[in-house]
């Protein structure tokens, strides 16, 4: 490919634009001038008032750039052993220098099932906890757990993640880490007080295409980034009405009680990372729209017998919930969620700038699964295959452990890359690629979409969970190559 004059991330993050923005936002909250101006006139929406960050408690400090203490071996406790938690157990045990010491589920038989699996793979049998709602609390009293992996239904994530931090453990929590703004703030504050990391288990941030897109953006291939699209578009109707897949139908029941954009983080996280959200830019304003909730009721009408308990339910969550998010640097992110419509799977995964655009999951005949158009490489208004670019910009993690990931993890290997990298960071004493501030901001569209929809789609302010440190450039998923420390 021809050389492209670099528009590097250092130039974009450290230039006068950010300096000017920082001058208006140094307190850690968005000023009115930080948000794009609204149209004038009697019917024009007004800019939302900035939501001020609650003050830190005395002695409470930021967790940004705080490294893990070095762990010779990472000892993991698993909480929640349904489809996701049970499926991740083997990957944890396969990472060099990692061992699963305890497993927990309210259904004790699931703890036994996961323990049996690990033994069948030649691993030590973990301690088993279950049989009651507080079984995880008993597990957290152990002194041989360094990291707690939480894969329970959404409504338990805040409580269990917080408990893990208070017990002196680091926590890796499946998404979303919490569903309310006060819960997100509580996790941020608890992480800062306990000096323990809480990380969103966002495996898609470690997807091969997503990490290549990140490197391309930070190397200036797209010029100045202006917008990105990400989300979770996945036809889950059959699974939502299954009597066995989601225990007690927990996920379908969320559609009866909330209008939120539940799960857009799978696409939002990688786009936010490529835009350096919390690392030179921040989300300032969110506005949400939603279609009518038609898909689940229609599916039930056609495929679910009248004797099924779902016929007593009324669905209120829109089939497609779209959030438009402004950033302090004038970018726009579109985050979407739709699990109720008949459609092929997509996380959208699109990033655009002044010199080009990348789109993933586009259905083109490309081994990389995406399509691209960047100047001066391309012309003629025709998409090109992503293959050569993915090879050139392949992240070091995939170059190093791609084969192991294919053999040990689900979702195309990204699960294992997440697990391997988490253990490597803890064993080497590194700063985590993703921290509690990323977890909070990526999950904030869950409660913020509810607020915006309740206000007729009007914009609502996005909190600054970093309390002002977002203006500072720091490393994230664009990490330097490193080795897994030798296993003792």
Unreliable runs? 1-46
Task: Specify the helix fraction band.
Answer: 25-40%
Q: Roughly how many Å is the radius of gyration? A: 22 Å
Q: Please state how the strands of the largest beta sheet are arranged side by side.
A: 14-13-12-11-7-10-9-8-15
Mean pLDDT: 90
Strand residue percentage? 15-25%
How many distinct beta strands? 15
Derived from helix and strand composition plus strand pairing, the structural class reads alpha/beta
- Spatial gap, N to C terminus: 44 Å
> Which overall shape is indicated by the principal axes computed on the Cα atoms?
globular
Number of helices: 17
List the helices and strands and how they pair.
Blueprint: H1 9-14, H2 16-25, E1 74-79, H3 83-94, E2 98-105, H4 108-120, E3 127-130, H5 135-140, E4 147-150, H6 157-166, E5 170-173, H7 181-194, E6 198-200, H8 208-218, E7 225-233, H9 237-240, H10 250-254, H11 265-274, E8 283-290, H12 295-303, E9 321-327, E10 332-338, E11 350-353, E12 356-360, E13 370-374, E14 384-385, H13 387-392, H14 396-408, H15 414-428, H16 436-443, H17 445-454, E15 460-461
Parallel strand pairs: 1-2, 1-4, 2-3, 4-5, 5-6, 7-10
Antiparallel strand pairs: 7-11, 8-9, 8-15, 9-10, 11-12, 12-13, 13-14
How would you characterize the overall build of this protein?
The chain is α/β, with parallel strands linked by helices. It is built from 17 helices and 15 strands.
